[in-house]
Amino acid sequence: MGQYFEPFIFEQIAAQDTNPRQLYLDEASTCQVYLLLMGKKYGNILPDGISPTEKEYQAAGEGNAWRVAFISDLDGQQREEEEERFFRKVQNELSYRVFSNPSVLVSLVKQSLYAYLKYKGIIQTLSFDEQICDDASMADIDAKKIKDFLHQARQKRGFPLSEDSDPMTVLKHLRLLRQDKPSNGALLMFANDPQYFFPSAAVKCAWFLGTETVKPIEDYKIFEGSVADQISQATSWVMSKLSVRYGQRNVEAQNEVEFEIPRSVIFETIVNAVAHRDYNSTGSVQISVFRNRIVVRNPGTLPVELTKADLMKEHGSYPHNPYLAEVLYQIGYIEKYGTGITENIRKMQEARLLAPEIDLSAEFITTIWRDDVAANDATSLSNDATDNSNVATNLGTNDASNTLIDSVNSANNIGTSKTNVATKSSNVATDLLAENKRVVDEIVKKKVHSKMSPQQIKECIIEACVVEHSVDELAKLLNKVPGHLRNRFIPELVADGILLPTKPRHSPGQTYITNPKLDK
After folding, report:
1. Is 404 domain-assigned?
2. What is the pLDDT of residue 394?
3. What's the whole-model pTM score?
4. Handedness of CA 103, 108, 109, 110 (dihedral sign)
5. Angle 207-188-179 (CA atoms, 0-180°, nearest 5)?
């Protein structure tokens, strides 16, 4: 990096009649790049109450320097109290990286300086989704996926190309074709087998009954296919692990069904992880569902144009994979650039839940806290625990106890202001997805009658599929012939982006779930 940067080294400065501290401050306030290294000790405190390092950090900020921080991994040791305070301050203002030894630090500094040079336009490189894969050709592109994209994009955004446009024309329009070869973005979205080219381009999901990453893992899935397939399948999987809330019968004629976490929050978080990850990394997007939280981590970093504080307000969009993000925007997976996290915060506030937490120490990690019932420690659960408005079916228990909605009265008393919750012994197995489906089906059945209009049938399908259903299950629920739903209603709802398949096309046991991006 010596050809681009000249470091300030105090030992090389000629002797002069200047206070050393003032010399450092002058350099910090005029430098273009400020690198901060943080360890265990805070350092001497000056008369104004802060250390020389923190004062230099402030001066660099006031001088509009490009500041980046590198934090030493203390391996369990405690930082001094003032250093911990300073660290929290930096954490709220900058993205930072953690290093364990000097060689790791050197590598991280190089990455950051390289990102700065790209940001300033000093060096020019292609984003990952612009680059071409030498082993790929148009023969690897699935024409059916292109056609499905055209239908959805025309419905969602008024995409200008007709549905009979050939794949090469579509990729050229999306700028996913270079030298007549599909780019990496095209392969991630439209290839017959994207994982052939990018084995780590997958979403790995694990469900833990407790609050720590320890065995046994109750459920583990790896979702592959196109980025759109990964997003829809992973969203369905996460939603199947969550509790359902039921509205009050004495307030509304019809029970309102909600998941404990808004579905759009889960969907948006997974979209961000898949769309904006670093595809040069050998890591995959990982989703862990715990009793008290959901953690989504992707191998990526915050763009140099943004700070962590910027994420908490409406901000400009600087996607790592801009062309891939554009494809997802066209089909409605991304609604508006630069608003995803702020929208998630708003939705969580409306649901009276904690705002998502962002951790940029190693990867891009988002933690979504579950509602109070799921988050409470098992020891705080009471045998007669009730909630006078919303009761969540609780999966957050340990081997000692499981709380279930009383099976005798639930059919008649779902959503009442007082719901009996019985504590069962550890040998009672709870299938949360089955329980949620049963409750939803009870509500939909009340709307089913012999002379339903096509619109009423669609509405029942959409409402039932807040929990995934197969065509045969829907047919039984609606008293319809499976072929009638399979050939008429399901294809139309899927094409309009209202229903999402949970498995690759033509997979046995295919089920469908209502698109989490739909307004309630």
Report:
1. no
2. 31
3. 0.56
4. positive
5. 165
